[in-house]
Design brief:
751 residues; mainly beta; Immunoglobulin-like; 7 helices; 9% helix; J_dom; Rcc01698_C; Putative tail protein
């Protein structure tokens, strides 16, 4: 007995399609195709390629065409930890400090893709998000090396360093990738589920798979279906299976049959021409002396047993190789005998739709089963899959397809057939659109950073340190790591992070000078923001007085009431309070292109420093997350301890008392503490102390007076000693003192 080998592989079959499944018993071809014994083997499925594994002994996928694969993690260095400690101090001198340590992780790992050699690696996804473009544009600067699976590839140097040169395989014949320094910040500190778009052949066909599989088992075959003309966009064999199970999905999609004919496996198209004609007179053959059978037997499958709908699930290249579903349906039928084909082949949606349409049409056209009894002379043309033209009745000729034959010696053949189905429509079908969101690799780009040696902005920041504002212009910017070099730029160590971006930009023109003691309603300046997604907003003057819209322009701290949008990311600012927090000396001398930093917009980091760093120029870098430190531009910066230095006193005055000059002033405080007693502001320092420099006409210091109250007496005797005469005109500078940072900003007085 011989039977048709292949039906609809991977399908949940009902109705007449199920009748196509047969078995070939007792031949070498049967053993080669189905495997020895009665072991159950599953063919490829859609879920074979969805989860990245790390399994010892995992099968190596066999790749054809272009497809998306996940692979198997074959080596990992384990997580490598980097600790960054930031210190924050409390209010007041000597207040307790809080240290916060943040940890980041990276890893080196190797991931097997499949059997090599492969031609190219295109896109990469990490946790379903695009990580690398087809042209090599990559989300982060981790080093990626592809080993295509050639027979002469060498071991990877990272693996050699970890395992030793003598213990590192070259994995020849295996295509794999190595990630070096993969930053895991975006992936929950774990290796993400990677998937890779792999090109294993630009011109591969169904014949390639047939030749590989049948060649391995030494099976002779004849390709009458010309499967070398059937392009194979993408196919992956990711699990152990038999040749039959592996070829089933291809047979279903491209409609070819396979049958053993005289010891050779023949492959022929399902819609091929008939091989013989059977006249009516040759029907009902039977051995001499036996009962004559019916001329032919026909059984028609009822409508309710036929499929109402065929569903084809496939991998869609237009959907980044995600699963897509195409259906064909006869809407007027109440049958529930539906067919679902799990087709793990990367084909366009239109092709899958055409397959569903054709499968449904074929199922209905093959609804008639025909049983014939023929003479032995038809033995060579009744192999399963062959087609016959049979004269059933005078003037009634039908084309049937052989399903099974049984030789009945001494002189007849019982042949089971079905209606041909060759008339099924084969015109291309159009699938409905099923778009997926377009993904693009958003590069982090460089970080623009401002190291701000400013007055104290918040009482909680009253510890040695400075402020940092950073952001990036690229849409993929996700924060930055701040690094400092203590050896002149040779090596950099991380000391802080900026997880969120500050609102920063530059001025388009110079901010004109204005008053420091009341509203400046005349000056205006245009600011262009670095990130066009950021914005500035107008507030009331009452809001300004309570701290809103504070910013740094150049070295001056200002507040503004009005922000008018003049272009995307560009604002015209006006309604200023100037010289805030003791920065009145910076009101004059503004230039175009000065930095603008919104201090009340978030993203401002406070970095603590050791007092020993005071006045030392260091090299700093801000490396965007996902980039190399070496790619960041170094920035020279000297910390002066500005936030810990007292503000310049105000209202410096002088009066004569005989020959003596008595100077007085009003001090200011660095702190934001309220004016509780209505008399004096909080001191903000450990003790009240001042130094008063007496200047000569050339600006040189001739004497320094040290006092502990906001008044100093320059005696007549000291004037004679310093100048040789009493002075009618004089210039001095007053500095309030800090126990930790020394002199504060100066206030100048003249008489």
């Amino acid at each position: 007995m011989a039977s048709l080998l292949f039906a609809v592989g991977g399908a949940k079959v009902a109705g007449p399609i199920g009748a196509l499944v047969g078995s070939l018993v007792g031949s070498r071809i049967d053993a080669a195709l189905f495997g020895p014994g009665t072991q159950s083997q599953e063919g490829p499925r859609l879920d074979d390629l969805t989860v990245q594994a790390s399994t010892y002994g995992q099968p190596v996928p066999r790749l054809y065409g272009t497809n998306r694969v996940t692979g198997n993690v074959i080596w990992s260095s384990g997580l490598k930890e980097t600790a960054t400690t930031e210190t924050q101090g409390g209010k007041g001198m000597g207040a307790p400090k809080t240290e916060t340590t943040r940890y980041t992780y990276h890893v080196d790992c190797a991931i097997a893709l499949g059997q090599g050699p492969i031609l190219a690696l295109r896109r990469i996804w990490a946790d379903s998000k695009l990580f690398r473009e087809a042209d090599g544009l990559q989300k982060q600067a981790a080093d990626l090396r592809l080993y295509p699976g050639s027979q002469d590839q060498e071991p990877d140097p990272v693996l050699q360093a970890a395992l030793g040169p003598d213990n590192t395989p070259a994995f020849r014949g295996l295509a794999y990738v190595v990630f070096e320094g993969l930053d895991l910040t975006d992936f929950g500190n774990r290796i993400p589920n990677f998937s890779f778009e792999v090109v294993a052949g630009d011109t591969q066909t169904v014949a390639t798979v047939i030749e590989d599989l049948l060649g391995e088992v030494g099976l002779p075959y004849l390709d009458a279906a010309r499967t070398d003309r059937l392009d194979l966009p993408g196919y992956v064999l990711a699990r152990p299976t038999t040749p039959r199970s592996a070829l089933d999905p291809l047979r279903a999609a491209w409609f070819f049959d396979m049958a053993e004919i005289e010891g050779v496996l023949e492959i022929f198209p399902a819609d091929g021409p008939p091989v013989a004609r059977v006249p009516r007179g040759h029907l009902a053959a039977h051995p001499y002396g036996s009962d004559r059978p019916q001329t032919y037997e026909i059984r028609r499958t009822a409508d309710l047993e036929l499929p109402r709908q065929v569903t084809v699930q496939h991998l869609d290249p237009e959907r980044d190789y995600q699963v897509n579903t195409q259906r064909s349906r006869r809407s007027t039928l109440n049958s529930t005998a539906d067919i679902t084909l799990d087709l793990p082949v990367a084909i366009p949606a239109d092709t899958a739709k055409t397959t569903a349409e054709r499968m449904l049409a074929v199922a209905w056209q093959r609804r008639d089963s025909v049983t014939l009894h023929l003479p032995l002379g038809y033995l060579h043309v009744t192999e399963p899959g062959m087609k016959l033209v049979v004269d059933l009745e005078p003037g009634q000729r039908r084309t049937v397809r052989v399903i099974r034959k049984e030789v009945r010696l001494p002189g007849s053949i019982r042949v089971e057939c079905e209606a041909d189905g060759a008339g099924a429509p084969v015109r291309p079908a159009r699938a409905g659109s099923a778009p997926v969101p377009q993904q693009a690799v958003l590069l982090p780009g460089p970080t623009v950073v401002h190291l701000l040696d400013l007055p104290l902005l918040r009482d909680a920041d009253d510890a040695p340190g400075f402020y940092v504002a950073a952001n990036g212009a690229a849409p993929g910017w996700r924060g930055a790591s701040l690094l400092r070099s203590l050896d002149g730029g040779m090596n950099y160590q991380p000391f802080a992070t900026t997880p969120t971006g500050a609102v920063i930009g530059t001025t388009d023109e110079a901010l004109a000078p204005g008053p420091a003691d009341y509203w400046d309603r005349r000056a205006e300046v245009t600011v262009s923001l670095l990130d066009p997604e950021h914005s500035l907003a107008s507030v009331t003057e009452a809001d300004v007085l309570t701290g809103a819209n504070a910013a740094v322009i150049g070295d001056e701290l200002v507040q503004f009431a009005t922000a008018d949008l003049v272009a995307p990311g560009q604002y015209r600012l006006s309604g200023f309070l100037r010289g805030r927090k003791g920065t009145e000396a910076a009101i004059a001398g503004h230039q175009p292109g000065e930095p603008f930093v919104l201090l009340t917009g978030g993203g401002i980091q406070r970095v603590t420093m050791a007092v020993a760093e005071l006045g030392i120029e260091r090299a700093y870098k801000a490396a965007s997350v996902g980039t190399l430190v070496s790619d960041a531009t170094p920035l020279a910066f000297t910390w002066t301890g500005r936030s810990g230095r007292p503000l310049a006193p105000v209202h410096v005055q002088a009066r004569r008392d005989g020959d003596d000059l008595i100077w007085s002033w009003i001090r200011r405080t660095r702190l934001d503490a309220p004016w509780l007693d209505g008399v004096d502001a909080p001191l903000g320092e450990g003790a009240e102390a001042y130094e008063v420099d007496i200047l000569d006409d050339q600006g040189a210091v001739v004497r320094t007076l040290r006092v502990t109250r906001p008044t100093a007496t320059y005696t007549g005797a000291d004037q004679l000693a310093d100048f040789g005469a009493l002075r009618d005109t004089m210039t001095l500078r007053v500095h309030q003192l800090s126990a930790r940072f020394g002199r504060g900003l100066p206030a100048e007085g003249r008489i």
